[in-house]
Amino acid sequence: MTPVRDALSVALALAAGGLPVMPLRADKGPFGNCPSCTGTACGGRPNMKTPGPCQCPRPCHAWAAATTDPTVLSSDSWTAAWRRAGAVAYHPGGAGLTVVDLDSAAAVDWARATLPPTRTVATTRGEHWIYQGTTRSVNHVRDGVDLKSTQSYVRWRGPGTGTMTTLPDVVRALAVKEPTVARPAARAVTLAAPAGGGQCPHRSPAYLERGIAMAEDRITNATSTVHAMVYRTFLAVLSAHGRCGCLTEAHIGRLFTAAQSKGESSRHCTDAWSNALTALGM
Question: Which candidate, 209, 208, 214, 219, places its Cα nearest to that of 269?
Fold first, then answer.
């Protein structure tokens, strides 16, 4: 455990610099910092990573607890948490920051080849890349990569090295993640022909072939945000060709193969296709 004096002194120093901070348990989960919220009595989730319907004067757990107020940080209700704290965490969005959490050597290699340099902090399994600017927090934007910004917290691991740069568009694009539709298992996708006989409006099979080939190229040549690119490409193909019934399983298979060649799993392909169908009301 981190001694209360050490954890609190680190927290107060960070708060003085404008970083909203909070204590973490040894298992990296946040505390419920008042009697009403201890043990998720207030209705918070068991891991306490999201605020519950707390009736306290202010949110007292999860990322919403992070504060720069030294009076709150040193209060009696927080002292018990600091005494048992395993680490200090901070709310990056509350400080106008985004942390790209790289959880493997492969993820770090990807960042070095794809993202503009910025301040970096070494972690147990990878690195944190910290940018100036906020975005939506999203986990698993690609293998080993999470975005931590608004409504999230990050363990403090030191000031890091390098000069912090402005949040680039390539990182903002990673947060554009289509909603996942829960499916019990992957299933074959069927396209219903529209009312009116389902006649194909395309005058030549070459039009469809050209569209599928362009979609394959768009996915295959993607250099970043592959997950979002696959979804947008599926959406475009279905918008152009999905209602007349001219798409076949062979066409869909070609698109899935292109996506899987870029690292997408079969389940992700099926989810993206299903989500595109839903978005188009098909």
Answer: 219
Q: 160-205: per-residue pLDDT in tens?
A: 999 999 999 889 888 875 444 333 333 344 433 333 344 566 656 6
Per-residue pLDDT reduced to its tens digit, 117-126: 999 999 999 9
Query: Is 222 among the domain residues?
Result: yes
The answer to whether residues 222 and 262 touch, using CB atoms and an 8 Å cutoff, is yes
Q: Which domain holds residue 84?
A: 4-89
Is 118 within the bounds of a domain? yes
Confidence (pTM): 0.59
Question: CA 175 to CA 136: how far, in whole Å?
Answer: 6
Q: What distance in Å separates the CA atoms of residue 174 and residue 141, rounded to the nearest whole number?
A: 6
DSSP label at 36?
T
Which of 60, 89, 118 finishes a domain? Answer: 89
How far apart, in Å, are the Cα atoms of 206 and each of 2, 224, 278? 67, 30, 27
Q: Hey, how many other C-beta atoms are within 10 angstroms of the C-beta on 114?
A: 15
Cα-flanking dihedrals φ and ψ of residue 151, to 5°? 55, 45
Which residue from 218, 221, 224 is spatially nearest to 171, judged by alpha carbons?
Answer: 224
Side-chain half-sphere CA neighbours of 249 within 13 A: 4
How far apart CA 273 and CA 156 sit, in angstroms, is: 39
Q: Residue 144 falls within a domain, yes or no?
A: yes
Residues 149 and 136: beta-carbon distance below 8 Å: yes
Residue 153 located in a structural domain: yes
Mind listing the pLDDT tens digit for each residue in 73-111?
888 877 878 888 889 999 999 999 999 999 999 999 999
